[in-house]
Write a structure and sequence with these properties.
This protein has 549 residues and is α/β, with parallel strands linked by helices. It is built from 22 helices and 18 strands. It has helices at 3-13, 28-34, 47-61, 73-76, 79-87, 114-118, 134-146, 159-163, 183-194, 206-209, 213-223, 254-262, 275-278, 314-317, 328-340, 354-364, 377-385, 406-416, 438-443, 459-468, 484-490, 504-513, and strands at residues 18-21, 40-43, 65-69, 92-98, 124-127, 152-158, 199-203, 227-229, 244-247, 265-269, 289-294, 308-311, 370-373, 394-395, 422-427, 449-454, 495-498, 518-523. The strands form three sheets. Strands 2-1-3-4-6-5 form a six-stranded parallel beta sheet, with helices on both faces. Strands 9-8-7-10-11-12 form a six-stranded parallel beta sheet, sandwiched between helices. Helix 1 (3-13) runs parallel beside helix 7 (134-146) and helix 16 (354-364) packs across helix 17. The longest helix has 15 residues, at 47-61. The radius of gyration is 24 Å and the shape is globular.
Length: 549
Amino acid sequence: MTGAQLLIELLAKHGVNEVFGYPGGAIMPIYDALYGAPIKHYLTRHEQGAGFAAVGFARSTGKLGVCFATSGPGATNLITSLADAMMDSVPLLAITGQVPTAAIGSDAFQEIDVLGMSLSCTKHSYLVERAEDLAEILQEAIHVAQSGRPGPVLVDIPKDIQLAQVPFHPWLAADDYKPTVNMSEVQKANNLLANAERPVAYIGGGVQSADAQTHLMDFLTRTQMPAVSTLKALGSVLPEYSLDMGMLGMHGGQAANIAVQECDVLVCIGARFDDRVTGNLAKFAAKAKVIHLDIDAAEVGKRKPVAASLVADLKDSLPHLHTPLTKAAWQTHCQQMMKEYAWRYDYPGEKVFAPYLLNTLSKMMPKTGVVCCDVGQHQMWVAQHMKFRHPSNHLSSGGAGTMGFGLPAAIGAQIARPNDFVITVSGDGSIMMNIQELATIRRNNLPVKILILDNQRLGMVRQWQQLFFDGRYSETDLSDNPDFVALAAVFGIPGQTITHANEVDAALEKLVNSTGPYILHACIDDKENVWPLVPPGASNEQMMTEVQS
């Protein structure tokens, strides 16, 4: 068989039924092999859309996401989605076409060193140089993307190798990377927990990567320990857990941030002490001894010294923590803070209040629904005011913070989970980044819902200009954006615009109950800010809760 045919056969053998991509000259043999194949290909309208759709597919299921692009600009358009997958540990396989082997290095038409470009934003990258190596490289790439800490892998295949007759040799796969729990470290951790007065569990995205929500909830139920979550971990802790304090960090809840600052033992479960979580690192959880659970040894001690480390799969390490019940006084204190700093939704104005809208949407939509966010104020409001029952139901670009993520990610999630409610929540800035993917929704009749919170501004940038740049609003005015409902209508997608608070409930009911794709355009106050906010360089207890006079 040809190299292109081998690729399609191997993907099918590894359970890949859907791929996302955009054809071009150097990848045409692969697209020819797709013709009539059992794998369903979804044509996006930009290669970045294909990459993010594959990310949404992977994050909403835990399965491998796969995307295709041609050489040159096709491949470079994938780079941002690869970086996003790298920073958020998403299993992704990117297949790119390359100019023929003999033309490599000659500045041929649409030749770019994609291998070199991708090295810093992939878990591993390959340029196939010999036809006889193709089978082994593809099988290894599929394995690497999903083993240990997941991540994106790129395979760049020259056109002549796609066309060549290639041998198939089953790859003798290495054992999965699965470090064993160090029992001496377990003993240290259990000793720390036994003597803890004010423990806190700090939950990260590793819980989803390890498929360890059940093990996490067993641990929390056993210990009754207050829990805080990163942006990517939201949904890992079930909403009914009484000591779920929500998100911590720059825009985290006040109770969550104060609890971490007051704790004496911090149990870090699959998190990496990201700067948006810690604020001033030297002052973050300064009173606490750290127990770090992670499968990636490189993360342990990278930013915060640890007193005990359990480098293993979370499903293996969490059951080893035999912790006594958390002290009642600490539980009561945390619960009192949760009441004192609870979110309020009694907005006095007549305009649409985004936190109320999102909280109401959270209550109306199915519990199994998926929310895909873009990046900005709306992203933080979603994290603060919506509840999720699993991290695969909340897809948000965390590490990379990529505007334009939400719409194509929702496409991937809807294709992966055709029977579930899927909505993208975007701002009037982010939605324009990949708005061409409305065509993908329409072509495939995907029932993706779209909620745009429109303040006619690049809201988060405007907020920072207000707070930290003396109100010099440079290039954040988006008042000349198009009529989004009219634009969606061109793609055959119905919707409505709302401008007043008394329209919210009825509009959300219509959105949730719509059977096909639907857009709700909500106009909000351009002066609304996301609170609280930890200013740059401050510690997490130094939260701003309003504009300082």
